[in-house]
Amino acid sequence: MTIRDTDGWVAPAPQFGAVLHSFSVRVLGCVIRFEAQSDQARELLDRHLFPSLRREAADPEQSDIKVRIAESEGDSRLIVNDVVIASADQPTALLRQLIDWLDRTLVQRLSGLHAVHAGAVLMGGKALVLPGASHSGKSSLVAELLRRGAVCLSDEYALIDAEGLVHAYPRTLLLRDGAVAQIPVAPRELDATVATTPTRVGWILALRYDRAACWSIQPEPQSASLLTLLQNTPHVLAERPEMVSAFQKAVAGAACYSGSRAEAADAVTHILRLVSAST
C-alpha cells in the first residue's frame, strides 16, 4: 500500500530500511528522483533542493538521477545512482555535498545552455549579471537584491542560451552571513520569487570585493565583459566554441561596468541607483 500526498510525496508502507518518502523534480531537462528514509531527511530535501520547482510523484524508471539519503543508527549516507558519495552522522551534514554534486553534474549535462559563474537577478524586465569566481561574494549581493525586490535567477550560475538570454538556475542560495559554513536559504525565505522565463541582459557588473573600499565603478566595453564571461565559465571553450556567439549576444544589449565594492548592503544601494537611472 502507498500513501500519496497532495504535494507529490509518496509514502510506502513502512518497513525496515525502506524508502519512506520520495519525489522528483525536472531541472534543465533532467529528472531527479529524491528518496528519504526519515521525516528529517524528507524535510531537508524538500526545503533545500530546488525549492521553487513543482514536486512530482517519483518514477524510478523515468529518472535520470536518483538521490537517496539512507539512515541507520548514527549513520547517514548520501547515495547517488546507487553509489555512496558521502557519509555523516546526520542528514544535514550531507546537504552541502549534495548541492555541490548536483551543481557540477547539471552543468556538465547542459544542452543548449552555457553556464557562467555569476549571480543574476531580474530587475525592470532585464537581467543583472554579477560574474565572479567562488567566494567572491556573489551570493551576498544576490540575497540583498532579493530583499529589496529583485527576482531571483541564481546566486551561482547565469545560464545563457544561443540567443544570449539568461535562464534561471533555481537552486537554493548558499549564504555565509558572517559564518564560515554556508547556510542554504531559499529565495522565498527572502520574500522573493524565482524567474520562470528567459530574459535579455540589461547590466553586467564585474565587482571586486574589498571591505575597505568605497563604491567605485567605471563603464567598460562590451568586449571586456565578453572576456569576463569567458573567464568565468566552467565549460571548456574548445569543446563549446558556440559559447562565444551566445555570450556576444548576451553582452550586445548590456550596460557593462567593472570596479570595486564594499559590503553588500552599500553596494546594492549603488546598484539600485544605477539601474534606476538607466530604466
Question: What does this protein structure show overall?
Answer:
Strands 8, 9, 10, 11, 12, 15, 16 and 17 form an eight-stranded mixed beta sheet that branches. With 279 residues, the chain is of the alpha+beta class. Helix content is 25%, strand content 34%. The radius of gyration is 20 Å and the shape is globular. The chain has six helices and 17 strands.
Index terms:
disordered N terminus, 279 residues, 8-stranded mixed sheet, 5-stranded mixed sheet, globular, 25% helix, alpha+beta, Phosphoenolpyruvate Carboxykinase, domain 3, 34% strand
What would you say about this model in short?
The protein is of the alpha+beta class and 279 residues long.
List the helices and strands and how they pair.
Elements: E1 2-4, E2 10-12, E3 21-27, E4 30-36, H1 39-48, E5 65-72, E6 75-80, E7 83-88, H2 95-109, E8 113-123, E9 126-131, H3 138-147, E10 151-154, E11 157-161, E12 166-167, E13 173-175, E14 183-185, E15 201-209, E16 216-219, H4 222-231, H5 243-252, E17 255-261, H6 264-277
Parallel strand pairs: 4-5, 9-15, 15-17
Antiparallel strand pairs: 1-2, 3-4, 5-6, 6-7, 8-9, 8-10, 8-11, 11-12, 13-14, 16-17
Helix pairs in contact: 3-6, 4-5
Number of discrete helical segments:
6
- Output the CATH topology of the largest domain: Phosphoenolpyruvate Carboxykinase, domain 3
Low-confidence stretches: 1-6, 9-16
* Total of domains: 2
Proportion of residues in β-strands: 25-35%
The computed structural class is: alpha+beta
Note the main sheet.
8 strands, mixed
Mean pLDDT: 89
- Which CATH C-level class of the largest domain is it? Alpha Beta
Helical content stands at 10-25%
